[in-house]
Amino acid sequence: QVQLVESGGGLVQAGGSLRLSCAASGRTFSSYAMGWFRQAPGKEREFAAGISWSGSSTIYADSVKGRFTISRDNAKNTVYLQMNSLKPEDTAVYYCAGSSLAYTRVSYSPRAYSYWGQGTQVTVSS
Length: 126
Description:
With 126 residues, the chain is mainly β. It contains no helices and 11 strands. Strands 2, 4, 5, 6, 9, 10 and 11 form a 7-stranded mixed beta sheet that branches. A 4-stranded antiparallel beta sheet has the order 1-3-8-7, with no helix packed on it. It is globular and about 40 Å long. The chain starts with a strand and ends with a strand.
């Protein structure tokens, strides 16, 4: 059974930084693309960042490009989201997601991901 466990969320002032981690277990982590999504109160879940199974390709939502960096350590079965220059509008629950199929292109669509963590809250104060 695949498990994804996020950590690293918290309260930070605008302009600050946080690093989220997602520890994966239950399948060959290095074979699957991973993504980070977020959901603010009253809004739909939206894509934030994604990384290919090898780590060679990354994609970002326009709203976070240049401020967030996704990375992975396949030896540790962990994917990270480094978030810099945080803004109040980044406040949301952040979810880690694992792709449904191995060795496929990283995707912006939540439909490409079958496995989800429980989420970690990020709150950015102004």
